[in-house]
Structure formats: C-alpha cells, structure tokens
Amino acid sequence: MVVLPKGPEGFEVEYVDADGVRRRVGLAECWAEPFGRLPPVRTVRTYPGQKSVTRQYWAATTRGPLLVESHLERHHAMLLDFDPQVAGLAAQPFRLFWPTRRGRRGHVPDFFARRADGEGLVVDVRPDDRIEPDDAEAFAATARACELAGWRFSRVGAVDAVLLANVKWLAGYRHPRYDRPELRQSLLEVFAAPEALFAGVGRVGDRLEVLPVLYHLLWRQLLHVDLDKGMLGPDNMVGPAERVR
Predict the structure, then answer these.
(1) Which of 67, 127, 145, 167 sits at a 20 to 30 Å CA gap from 199?
(2) Which helix (H) or strand (E) holds 137?
(3) What is the secondary structure of 156-220 as a DSSP string?
(4) What pLDDT does 94 receive?
(5) Can you provide one Gene Ontology molecular function annotated for this UniProt record (predicted)?
(6) Which fold has domain 8-42+53-156?
C-alpha cells in the first residue's frame, strides 16, 4: 500500500469523479481513485488551422470511446487497448497541478491505464522532436507525481511501422461480434501447436468465415503471432499464447 504525506511536494489533481462531480484535491487524497474508469477532465475542441486530428477511438477494453487528439494518440490508445494486461483505460484522466517559480502549472496526461495486477500507468504521447522546454518540465513533474503515487509513467512517441500496421489490422476485428464460440474452440485446438496461418484456418473451415474469428483471437492474444518481424500474412506461424508469455 502506498502511503503519501498530505500534499506531497504541492501536487494537486483535478478530476471528474464517478458521480460527475469535478474535484480538485491533493495527490495524497486521490491516488487510489479509479482513474481508468472515470470520464475525461476536459473537452477537446476543434479549431480552424488545427494541426492535430481530434477523434474518438472505440476501446474494446472498456467497450466505449476514448478521446484522442492526433493520429499518434490514437495509435497509442490502440496499443494500450491491445495489451491484455490493461483492465481499465481512460483518456484525459486528470489535470495535475504543481508549484513553480512562475506560479502553479497544470498538465493533462493523455491516458491512464489500470493493469490487471492493480498497477496504474500514466501515459503522455509526444514525439522526441516535438518536446519543448515547457513540455519537458510537465513530463518531469508528471513522472515525479507518479513516483509518489506508486504509478508508472511513460512518455511515448513514434511506433514501429510494421507493428503498427499489424495491430491496426487486428484492431479491425476487436469488437466482440467477431467472437464465435464454436469456431473459437476449433481454432484454439488447431493452433495448439504452431502452424501457418492459412493452413490452420483451412483445417477449420471456409477462410471467409474463419479468418475474422482468428483475427479476433489474435487481437485478444488468446493465440500468438509475431507482429514486429514482418507484415501479417498467410505464412505467419500462429501458436498458443502461453508459449510466448
């Protein structure tokens, strides 16, 4: 259990609780809040000439939308959604305040993820070449607040192109409607030992019928295929997930 002194290092957190009430309290008073299930602390608005793209990502983890402000944020929302250890996921989860020589500053991280083991993860999305001094200060302050709260902090940037393309393909089959229990069981049995993707699918039935179910199982990581060594195709070896964990 994490025990924080009251108002550690002057950090305050503004958030919207499960009842829709906006709160601003010391970090010590809210570090245990279920931020992975709370609504966003702010609304993202579009404006003329905007460089980023504001849109929503539908997360299979929560079966609801996540607010993202750019293609890169959407990619990282998808990767968090793809992680089978992520049990809760929220965008724009809170606004962190801390004292500086110029007065109090605030920063809204991009995501909060709650992992299956209970660990909290705060994620900021920003490419290496777009970090200005104020950004670096905000990320450092967020990392320190996370350290005090017992959370992990990660600042992420560009995603490997091959991994991204493969996960985007599988994300097209993330919805539960692609889960067909009778085909799921057959696929788990066929790929109990590693086998080429198309060959195994052909042993189960018609490809057009079976492939969507296989992609759904790969999205859920109930079956495993290497996603970072080449584009997903008919000859990729698919096998049981437990062999790679």
Answers:
(1) 167
(2) helix 133-149
(3) E----HHHHHHHHHHHTT-SGGG--HHHHHHHHHHTTS-EEHHHHHHHHS-HHHHHHHHHHHHHT
(4) 98
(5) endonuclease activity
(6) Trna Endonuclease; Chain: A, domain 1 (3.40.1350)
